[in-house]
Amino acid sequence: MQQRYFLGKQDKLKSRKVIQQLFTEGKQVTVFPLKAIWMTGAQSSSLQAAVSVSARHFKKAVDRNRIKRLIRESYRLQRNELTSHLIQQNLQLSVFFIFIGNELPNYQLVSDACDKILQKLIQLTNETNQ
Question: Rounded to two decimals, what is the model's pTM?
Fold first, then answer.
C-alpha cells in the first residue's frame, strides 16, 4: 500500500488549554534552528503539532509564513515513522515547534533539524513509556 503524506485538521494542535499545559509541563528538545516542546497526553489524535516563528526576529509576515510553511512541510513528510511508533506504544503526543534562528533558512536545514527532532522524540517516548 502506498504511504500517504497529509496534515489534516485533526493533526493540528489548536486547543489553547493543551498549548498552555504544553508550555507549563512540557519537555524540550532543541536542534538548531528548531526547538520542540512536547508532552504525552490525552487528545483526540495520536500526534498533534503546532508551529511558531518569532515576530521579533522576522518583522515581515511574509518571512514568518515562509518559515512556518517550510517547517510544516518537512514535518508532514517525516512524521509517519513517529505516528506508527506512537500507535504501537498506544501514546498520544503533542508537539510545538518553535523556530529559534535569526536568518531565513533553506528547506534542507529545516528538514534535517525536523528529522533529528522526530528521531529524538521516538527515543524519548520509548524511555518514558518503559
Answer: 0.92
